[in-house]
């Protein structure tokens, strides 16, 4: 027989005290089945209350909504729960419906670095022998895997994932908290031991409208979600870091500052960059720890410090955490070391496909490179044209040798796209075929040089017209090295 729960067991009370046995939860009327609770939520395009009739026709036993929704719905022959914030009530109900979560969980928010930090936290736990996952933009990864449609899944999906993971023996989980997810209370009901803050810059103003609203949404993690015994782990090198730490301390939460800042508890004392990573000196409780990170980019040391802080904040012994940091690997296609030439020159693949990202990636690479930086890049067709010359200018400003090639031309004339890029980097070499451009880029590498293949990152296809041809920058880097240096 299908499982069912009383409304009270889901933390809900219906108008007039009406009872109902609930057999499942749905936020979309099309997902409702016999005996389900349908959450009729206020949306950006419509109010979910408009779909109550469909939900009832499909057998909904209860409707959860707000006052506006209740007014729209009128009288219904179902239990009606009217909540001030129905998204919050839904998340609470989802937590109770699924009823199980991994025992040790942390979440990280910020504009950049969430995926990296969550992945690092999961990798540290796994190296320490725990069954761990991370949940975010790259899905559910680690000792148990599943797809995740959002960076921070809807509460019903999230709590289903957490319960299934717990049943599969997962004890530790690191999750990304997107600003949308926090604003829509998707993480309510998740029992966090620690929460992290990476940084804050402008993004997502289409949704949040103002910078303040975007910041406030992110702060929900510290102002609301982290329980009184939780630890706030904050990157103090970001301009907003001190404010986040202050807000957490005001709530009486334990805070741990991380970063280069002299006030950091987990402090990065020094860094020395080399061709494939960096040597980092960390200080924790008066003791220094020398750590090798096989990761490129100064910000990665901050991401690692934040991940280590979260894992320590959630109860792991610090010394053991520092010992496993040399094993960390970055997110696929993000400054990924794809291959190394026989002469030692390194080849990186990065997802950078905007002018800003191209500039950031090349700048991050610079301190690691004794010689010249070579870049191979293009720009997508049927997408923002204005970025093409800007990408060309960014490459010309920050790389020593540029190859302009194709990157998903789609329905556009690839030569015309390249011409728009080349207008801003006239010294670049134009090579239409991406595989050949990579080969030429690799061939240009002398000892001490590095190549950045930008644009595709983890993608595995080249879109030409409406066809997707298999293409993998990481694979092509190895193919080029093998062709030029012989298989090593
Ligand atoms: C912008 C945004 O976050 N939208 C979320 C919002 O949708 P909405 O307000 O547009 O909904 P709507 O279309 O007005 O419909 C209102 C309600 O009616 C329901 N409905 C609609 C049609 C129907 O036939 N029946 C029905 O019941 C909808 O499920 C919804 O609950 O509420 C829906 C239900 O809770 C969410 O699924 C939806 O997420 C959409 C899918 C989405 O794409 N969100 C993205 C932007 C997002 O959350 N991204 C972040 C990462 C951002 C980043 O860092 O890059 C993430 O965490 O993934
Ligand atoms: N701490 C950081 N500071 C600044 N930039 C960063 C930082 N960490 C990562 N980045 C940059 O942001 C890009 C995205 O990194 P990551 O996927 O970890 O972030 P995210 O917050 O999860 O973003 P998304 O949700 O878009 O995946 C990286 O390729 C890198 O260039």
Automatic annotation (TrEMBL):
<dbReference type="GO" id="GO:0000287">
    <property type="term" value="F:magnesium ion binding"/>
</dbReference>
<dbReference type="GO" id="GO:0009252">
    <property type="term" value="P:peptidoglycan biosynthetic process"/>
</dbReference>
<keyword id="KW-0436">Ligase</keyword>
<dbReference type="GO" id="GO:0008360">
    <property type="term" value="P:regulation of cell shape"/>
</dbReference>
<keyword id="KW-0547">Nucleotide-binding</keyword>
<keyword id="KW-0131">Cell cycle</keyword>
<keyword id="KW-0067">ATP-binding</keyword>
<dbReference type="GO" id="GO:0008765">
    <property type="term" value="F:UDP-N-acetylmuramoylalanyl-D-glutamate-2,6-diaminopimelate ligase activity"/>
</dbReference>
<keyword id="KW-0133">Cell shape</keyword>
<dbReference type="GO" id="GO:0071555">
    <property type="term" value="P:cell wall organization"/>
</dbReference>
<keyword id="KW-0132">Cell division</keyword>
<dbReference type="InterPro" id="IPR013221">
    <property type="entry name" value="Mur_ligase_cen"/>
</dbReference>
<feature type="binding site">
    <location>
        <position position="29"/>
    </location>
    <ligand>
        <name>UDP-N-acetyl-alpha-D-muramoyl-L-alanyl-D-glutamate</name>
    </ligand>
</feature>
<feature type="binding site">
    <location>
        <position position="184"/>
    </location>
    <ligand>
        <name>UDP-N-acetyl-alpha-D-muramoyl-L-alanyl-D-glutamate</name>
    </ligand>
</feature>
<dbReference type="InterPro" id="IPR004101">
    <property type="entry name" value="Mur_ligase_C"/>
</dbReference>
<comment type="function">
    <text>Catalyzes the addition of meso-diaminopimelic acid to the nucleotide precursor UDP-N-acetylmuramoyl-L-alanyl-D-glutamate (UMAG) in the biosynthesis of bacterial cell-wall peptidoglycan.</text>
</comment>
<feature type="binding site">
    <location>
        <position position="455"/>
    </location>
    <ligand>
        <name>meso-2,6-diaminopimelate</name>
    </ligand>
</feature>
<feature type="binding site">
    <location>
        <begin position="151"/>
        <end position="152"/>
    </location>
    <ligand>
        <name>UDP-N-acetyl-alpha-D-muramoyl-L-alanyl-D-glutamate</name>
    </ligand>
</feature>
<feature type="binding site">
    <location>
        <position position="186"/>
    </location>
    <ligand>
        <name>UDP-N-acetyl-alpha-D-muramoyl-L-alanyl-D-glutamate</name>
    </ligand>
</feature>
<feature type="binding site">
    <location>
        <begin position="110"/>
        <end position="116"/>
    </location>
    <ligand>
        <name>ATP</name>
    </ligand>
</feature>
<feature type="modified residue" description="N6-carboxylysine">
    <location>
        <position position="218"/>
    </location>
</feature>
<feature type="domain" description="Mur ligase N-terminal catalytic">
    <location>
        <begin position="22"/>
        <end position="95"/>
    </location>
</feature>
<comment type="similarity">
    <text>Belongs to the MurCDEF family. MurE subfamily.</text>
</comment>
<dbReference type="GO" id="GO:0051301">
    <property type="term" value="P:cell division"/>
</dbReference>
<keyword id="KW-0460">Magnesium</keyword>
<feature type="binding site">
    <location>
        <position position="178"/>
    </location>
    <ligand>
        <name>UDP-N-acetyl-alpha-D-muramoyl-L-alanyl-D-glutamate</name>
    </ligand>
</feature>
<dbReference type="InterPro" id="IPR005761">
    <property type="entry name" value="UDP-N-AcMur-Glu-dNH2Pim_ligase"/>
</dbReference>
<keyword id="KW-0963">Cytoplasm</keyword>
<feature type="domain" description="Mur ligase C-terminal">
    <location>
        <begin position="333"/>
        <end position="457"/>
    </location>
</feature>
<feature type="short sequence motif" description="Meso-diaminopimelate recognition motif">
    <location>
        <begin position="407"/>
        <end position="410"/>
    </location>
</feature>
<keyword id="KW-0961">Cell wall biogenesis/degradation</keyword>
<feature type="binding site">
    <location>
        <position position="459"/>
    </location>
    <ligand>
        <name>meso-2,6-diaminopimelate</name>
    </ligand>
</feature>
<dbReference type="InterPro" id="IPR036615">
    <property type="entry name" value="Mur_ligase_C_dom_sf"/>
</dbReference>
<dbReference type="InterPro" id="IPR000713">
    <property type="entry name" value="Mur_ligase_N"/>
</dbReference>
<comment type="pathway">
    <text>Cell wall biogenesis; peptidoglycan biosynthesis.</text>
</comment>
<dbReference type="GO" id="GO:0005524">
    <property type="term" value="F:ATP binding"/>
</dbReference>
<feature type="binding site">
    <location>
        <position position="383"/>
    </location>
    <ligand>
        <name>meso-2,6-diaminopimelate</name>
    </ligand>
</feature>
<feature type="binding site">
    <location>
        <begin position="407"/>
        <end position="410"/>
    </location>
    <ligand>
        <name>meso-2,6-diaminopimelate</name>
    </ligand>
</feature>
<dbReference type="GO" id="GO:0005737">
    <property type="term" value="C:cytoplasm"/>
</dbReference>
<dbReference type="Pfam" id="PF01225">
    <property type="entry name" value="Mur_ligase"/>
</dbReference>
<dbReference type="Pfam" id="PF08245">
    <property type="entry name" value="Mur_ligase_M"/>
</dbReference>
<dbReference type="Pfam" id="PF02875">
    <property type="entry name" value="Mur_ligase_C"/>
</dbReference>
């Amino acid at each position: 027989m299908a499982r069912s729960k009383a409304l009270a067991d889901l933390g809900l009370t219906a108008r007039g005290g009406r009872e109902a046995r609930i057999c499942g939860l749905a936020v979309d009327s099309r997902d409702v089945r016999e005996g389900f609770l349908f959450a009729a939520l206020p949306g950006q395009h419509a109010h979910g209350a408009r779909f109550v009739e469909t939900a009832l026709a499909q057998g909904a036993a209860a409707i959860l909504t707000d006052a506006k929704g209740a007014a729209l719905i009128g009288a219904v022959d179902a239990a009606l729960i009217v909540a001030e914030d129905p998204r919050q009530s839904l998340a609470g109900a989802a937590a109770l419906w699924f009823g199980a979560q991994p025992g040790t969980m942390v979440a990280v928010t910020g504009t950049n670095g969430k995926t990296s930090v969550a992945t690092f936290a999961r990798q540290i736990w796994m190296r320490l022998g725990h069954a761990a996952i991370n949940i975010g933009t790259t899905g559910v990864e680690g000792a148990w895997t599943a797809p995740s449609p959002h960076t921070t899944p809807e509460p019903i999906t999230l709590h289903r994932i957490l319960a299934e993971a717990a049943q599969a023996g997962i004890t530790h989980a690191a999750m990304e908290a997107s600003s949308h997810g926090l604003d829509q209370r998707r993480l309510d009901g998740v029992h966090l031991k620690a929460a992290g803050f990476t940084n804050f810059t402008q993004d997502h103003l289409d949704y949040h409208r103002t910078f303040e609203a975007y910041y406030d949404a992110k702060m929900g993690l510290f102002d609301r979600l982290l329980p009184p015994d939780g630890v706030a782990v904050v990157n103090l090198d970001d301009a907003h870091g001190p404010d986040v730490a202050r807000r957490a301390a005001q709530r009486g939460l334990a805070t741990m500052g991380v970063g280069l800042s002299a006030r950091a508890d987990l402090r990065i004392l020094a860094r020395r960059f080399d061709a494939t990573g960096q040597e980092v000196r960390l200080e924790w409780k008066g003791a220094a720890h020398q750590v090798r990170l096989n990761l490129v980019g100064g910000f990665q040391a901050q991401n690692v410090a934040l991940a280590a802080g979260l894992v320590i904040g959630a109860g792991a012994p610090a010394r053991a955490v520092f010992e496993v940091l040399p094993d960390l690997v970055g997110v696929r296609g993000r400054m990924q070391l794809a291959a190394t030439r026989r002469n030692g020159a390194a080849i990186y693949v990065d997802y950078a496909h905007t002018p800003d990202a191209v500039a950031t990636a090349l700048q991050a690479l610079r301190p690691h490179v004794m010689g010249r930086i070579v870049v191979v890049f293009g720009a997508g067709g049927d997408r923002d044209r204005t970025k093409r010359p800007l990408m060309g200018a960014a490459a010309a400003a920050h790389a020593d040798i540029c190859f302009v090639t194709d990157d998903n031309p789609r329905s556009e004339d690839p030569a015309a796209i390249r011409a728009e890029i080349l207008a801003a980097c006239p010294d670049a070499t134009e090579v239409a075929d991406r595989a050949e451009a990579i080969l030429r880029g690799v061939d240009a590498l002398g000892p001490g040089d590095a190549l950045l293949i930008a644009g595709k990152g983890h993608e595995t296809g080249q879109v030409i017209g409406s066809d997707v041809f298999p293409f993998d920058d990481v694979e092509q880097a190895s193919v080029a090295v093998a062709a030029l240096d012989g298989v090593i």
